Amino acid sequence: MTENWLPRALEESRARGFLGPGPIEQHIEHAMGFVSAWSLVEASAPTSVLDLGSGGGVPGFILSTIWTCRVVLLDSMIRRTTFLEEAATWEGSPPSLEVVTGRAEELGRGVALRESVDLVVSRSFGPPAVTAECASAFVKPGGLLIVSEPPGEESQARWQTNGLRELSLESLGRHRFGAAFQILRKSGPLNSTYPRRNGIPAKSPLF
C-alpha cells in the first residue's frame, strides 16, 4: 500500500459529497478513536472488521490502513458502494478491502456475513437500538461493537441493558478519545429472530 492512497480516497469521497467539507485529517483523527477503543479492551488487533453504513468509506478506509485484516465496507446505497469499489481498485489500496451492497437487516441474516467478524464499527448508522440490532448480527460471540456517539451526548440511558441483553450484547461503557465511543461486547450467539425484517428495527425499536 502506498502512502498516497488514503488521502486520495478521502479527498475524492469528499469531492463526491460523501464526506463533510472539513479537512480529511479530522476524519482520520476521529477514526483513530475506534482503534483506541478496541485497544482499551483487546491486546491484539482484530482479524476482521465490518464498517456498518460505511458511506464515504469512513472509518473503514482508515482502519484498513492501520490493521492488516479483512475490512468489509457495508452500505445500502449503490452510488456509495460504487465509489467504494472504485477506490478499492486504485494503486496502493489495502488488499483486504471488501465492499458489500445491501440492507443490513438482510445481510445480517445471510450465511456469508452472519456472526463472522471480530469488530463492527459504526459512525452514524442510526439510533442505538437500530445500530445494536443490525450490528449484533455480524459480530462473532466474544467480539466487539464500537459506536461513535453524537457530539454532546452523555447519557448512558441510550444503551438500555435489557434491550442489549436481548441482542446478546453487554455495555463496556462509554470512553472518550477526542470523541466519545460506546463499546459493547457480544456475549453469545444472536437469536435467529434478529435482525428483523427491513425497516422494523427502526419502526419498532427494542429500546
Protein described:
- There is one protein chain.
- This protein has about 210 residues and is an alpha/beta fold.
- It has helices spanning about 5-15, 25-40, 60-65, 80-85, 105, 130-135, 160-165, 200-205, and strands at about 50, 70-75, 95-100, 115-120, 140-150, 170-175, 180-185.
- Strands 3-2-1-4-5-7-6 form a 7-stranded mixed β-sheet, with helices on both faces.
- The longest helix is centred in the N-terminal third of the chain and has 18 residues, at about 25-40.
- The mean pLDDT is about 95.
Question: Could you name the key traits of this structure?
Answer:
globular, 7-stranded mixed sheet, alpha/beta, 207 residues, 24% strand, 8 helices, Rossmann fold, 32% helix
Write the layout of secondary structure elements.
Blueprint: H1 5-15, H2 24-41, E1 48-52, H3 60-64, E2 70-75, H4 78-87, E3 97-101, H5 104-107, E4 117-122, H6 128-136, E5 139-148, H7 161-166, E6 169-177, E7 179-186, H8 200-203
Parallel strand pairs: 1-2, 1-4, 2-3, 4-5
Antiparallel strand pairs: 5-7, 6-7
Radius of gyration: 16 Å
Into which percentage range does the β-strand content fall?
15-25%
Q: How many separate helices?
A: 8
Structural classification: alpha/beta
Please, what is the CATH homologous superfamily? Answer: Vaccinia Virus protein VP39
CATH class, named Alpha Beta
Brief characterization of the structure:
This protein has 207 residues and is of the alpha/beta class. The chain has eight helices and seven strands; from the N terminus they run H-H-E-H-E-H-E-H-E-H-E-H-E-E-H.
